[in-house]
């Protein structure tokens, strides 16, 4: 039986869609999403953002905090065009899915027509809306904490040899999304896995995770990207809605420490690794 989350429709032309996805909470999806959004905005691109987790609303609150801080501080911060997709309260599963699909597809079409890039933050669980978002991705970014707890999101490993035994349910869902995308328009999903909260210390477990990811990337087809180190600054900026890329903006008034400089370099390394072809879209001041 076909998965109703996968549409037979061809993807809507327009903005390049970047989906932040995995099925574990606490991996840094929202922080990564907001820094990708800010990075693209500072490149002069028009950026849309979509929150598929209407319960947690983490990306929505980040954007709201950003707007509130900018207004109260009198600073002209670049902002995305944001939307949140609400979970349906319909009585039946089929009615709920129909409502959610309609809301998602209408919002997707609008943002893709008005923006250069669209960044979608998905829930940390397997939901109908999450699958809809994954199926529309041009670039899928999966942040994971640098441990075998999060590695389990991607694959099961042999506890003695640390060899990959079998891909996980999430990896299989991504594989299905890729097949459906190829059938719909001949397009592809560039899957990027980023190791987050990296320790600055060398450790045997860290090397084992890296070795396992290298082998798994060849087996199921994702690219590895540099992620963010374990830095308090990434968590401290949420209440203001700021990102590390805003700290040099006029009126922000933050003093850059060596830790800030290193963290900004990590953000720029991620943006570079995504291979987004920023020159392909005209530079425009985002409002």
Structure described in brief:
By secondary structure, this protein is of the alpha/beta class. It has helices spanning 29-42, 58-73, 93-114, 128-135, 148-151, 169-185, 204-220, 232-236, 258-273, and strands spanning 16-20, 47-51, 81-84, 117-121, 139-145, 155-157, 164-167, 190-196, 223-225.
**How would you characterize the largest beta sheet?**
7 strands, parallel
Structural class designation: alpha/beta
Strand content: 5-15%
**What is the CATH domain class?**
Alpha Beta
Taking all Cα atoms into account, the compactness measure Rg is 19 Å
**How many domains is the backbone divided into?**
1
Mean pLDDT, all residues = 85
Please give the alpha-carbon distance between the first and last residues: 44 Å
Oligomeric organization of the protein chains? single chain
CATH-derived topology: Rossmann fold
* Known CATH architecture: 3-Layer(aba) Sandwich
Describe this structure in words.
With 287 residues, the protein is an alpha/beta fold. It has one domain: 3-Layer(aba) Sandwich (Rossmann fold). It is built from nine helices and nine strands. It has helices spanning 29-42, 58-73, 93-114, 128-135, 148-151, 169-185, 204-220, 232-236, 258-273, and strands spanning 16-20, 47-51, 81-84, 117-121, 139-145, 155-157, 164-167, 190-196, 223-225. It has a seven-stranded parallel β-sheet, sandwiched between helices. It has a two-stranded antiparallel ribbon with strand order 6-7. The longest helix is centred in the middle third of the chain and has 22 residues, at 93-114.
């Amino acid at each position: 039986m076909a998965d109703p989350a996968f549409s037979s429709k061809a993807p809507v032309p327009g903005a390049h869609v970047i989906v932040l996805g995995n099925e574990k909470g606490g991996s840094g999806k929202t922080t990564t999403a907001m820094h990708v959004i800010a990075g693209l905005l500072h490149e002069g691109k028009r950026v849309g953002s979509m929150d598929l987790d209407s319960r947690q609303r983490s990306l929505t609150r980040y954007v709201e905090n950003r707007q509130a801080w900018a207004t109260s501080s009198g600073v002209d911060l670049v902002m995305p065009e944001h939307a949140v997709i609400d979970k349906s309260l319909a009585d039946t599963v089929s009615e709920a899915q129909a409502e959610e699909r309609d809301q998602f597809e209408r919002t997707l079409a609008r943002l893709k027509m008005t923006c250069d890039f669209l960044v979608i933050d998905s829930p940390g669980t397997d939901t109908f809306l999450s699958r809809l978002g994954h199926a529309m991705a041009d670039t899928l970014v999966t942040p994971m904490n640098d441990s075998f707890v999060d590695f389990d999101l991607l694959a099961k490993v042999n506890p003695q040899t640390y060899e990959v035994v079998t891909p996980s349910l999430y990896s299989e869902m991504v594989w299905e999304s890729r097949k459906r995308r190829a059938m719909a328009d001949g397009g592809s999903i560039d899957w990027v896995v980023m190791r987050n909260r990296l320790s600055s210390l060398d450790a045997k477990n860290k090397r084992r995770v890296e070795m396992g990811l290298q082998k798994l990337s060849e087996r199921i087809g994702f690219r590895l990207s540099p992620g963010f180190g374990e830095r308090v600054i990434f968590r401290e900026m949420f209440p203001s809605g700021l990102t590390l890329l805003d700290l040099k903006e006029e009126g922000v008034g933050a003093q850059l420490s060596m830790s800030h400089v290193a963290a900004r370099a990590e953000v720029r390394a991620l943006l570079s690794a995504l291979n987004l072809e920023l020159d392909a879209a005209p530079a425009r001041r985002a409002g």
